[in-house]
Amino acid sequence: MANLETEFCGVKFRNPLVVSSIEPTNSVDKLKRCIDAGAGGAIVKTLTDIPDMHKLSKHSKYAILNNKGRLIRGVIPRSFSFYARSGYSSDPYEEWIPHLKEAQVHAEGNGAQIIGSVGAKSMEGWRDICRAVEDCGIKLVELNFGCPHPAMMPGVCGGSMIGQDPEMAAEVTAWVADAVDIPVIIKMTPDQSQPIEVARAVRDAGASAVTLTNRYTGFAVDIETGKPYIGGPAGVGGPWIKPLSLRWVHEIHSKLGIPIAGSNGIFDARDAIEFIMSGATLMQIGSVLMLKGIEYLSEVVDGISTLLDEYGYPDLPSIHGLASRQAATSYQAHFEANPVRAAIDQEKCKFPKCENCIRSCFHEALSGDNGTVVTLEENCLGCELCYSVCPHNAIEMLDKAA
Ligand SMILES: Cc1cc2nc3c(=O)[nH]c(=O)nc-3n(C[C@H](O)[C@H](O)[C@H](O)COP(=O)(O)O)c2cc1C
Known about the structure:
Layout: E1 6-8, E2 11-13, E3 17-19, H1 28-36, E4 41-43, E5 47-48, H2 51-58, E6 61-65, E7 81-85, H3 93-108, E8 113-119, H4 123-135, E9 141-144, H5 160-163, H6 166-179, E10 184-187, H7 195-204, E11 209-212, E12 216-218, E13 221-222, E14 227-228, E15 234-237, H8 242-256, E16 260-262, H9 269-278, E17 282-285, H10 287-292, H11 297-311, H12 322-325, H13 331-336, E18 340-344, H14 356-359, E19 366-369, E20 372-375, H15 385-389, E21 395-399
Parallel strand pairs: 3-4, 3-17, 4-8, 5-8, 8-9, 9-10, 10-11, 11-16, 16-17
Antiparallel strand pairs: 1-2, 6-7, 7-15, 12-15, 13-14, 18-21, 19-20
Helix pairs in contact: 1-3, 4-6, 6-7, 7-8, 8-9, 9-11
Flavin mononucleotide is lined by residues 20-23, 45-46, 82, 84, 86, 88, 117, 144, 147, 187, 214-215, 237, 263-266, 284-287.
């Protein structure tokens, strides 16, 4: 069995799968259930002093959409859109103190960790809530610079508004890093154009790690009513967003080397492994648990070790950043790569009944001739589109020189 033990910012986790800050972490009982279901940790639903963010959670709305943009109505597809409006923790942070202590004792007894999450309205708030978290024996705190909702609250500066501004993000990070002794993680927003600058700024200001990323802000429309779902703009994510999240994990891992917790797009163990191979150390899983239940965690944790065993990896360090290291760093590498060409297996090819490859070749390299598909080698770029669209496994990409 592959070893799943993980160290993140000097803190040990029995496995790398932690529940992100979300509804399934909004009470002590739920935090304990996450641990009992096998999570390596759980991040408490963001603690706050912003009254409207408490209130927003009491008015939460969720519309879960399929790939046609319609409500899923009980059928959970592999690629759902989780379109939702929800605030931070519904109880004042002071009331959380005994619960956090209790949850942390429970987690540590199981080789896991509770992580704090904070989203405040003032510098004093950031400092006081983070200190309260630290005083509960919690070993890591995440600052929520990624939530889309404060931006829609007049007079509030929080969440993604901070995460979009490298200077403000650095200022709050430095202030908190100075006030507490535990490592500070910055949860970033994907709703921005300069994530590397923000990650660099918070690292230089004292952050020990970044979480990549919180959710995008979206707008989903129900054409039957002609209205937006759940009344207007909301946070949006789902497994389909994973390549966008992985892009930032890869870029920030390769350019800055700062420890990364991956979030935004994990449905199952395979997704978690993609995050590790892109450069993440911890994986945060959230919205899928709201659809499949907290107990689904054990399937994902078991799946990670099963896949590692299947591919012959003994542990997590052996795959950490593996794909990131093998990514081209410039287009020059692509220009210099060995050219390939499409070769048709005439036995498997179903032409003229099927013309998928010819229809998708935009370089005039494939044509139907005398009842067979023929490759015009000098036109074939080796782009592999025909290989993707062939339903009969009749195309192989071969070295042009061979
Ligand atoms: C309903 C809902 C509530 C959330 N609440 C919080 C929150 O309080 N604090 C936070 O940092 N992120 C919050 N998030 C973001 C999640 O923690 C997570 O980063 C995001 O859902 C992407 O991960 P996923 O693809 O596994 O869902 C919330 C997400 C959803 C869907």
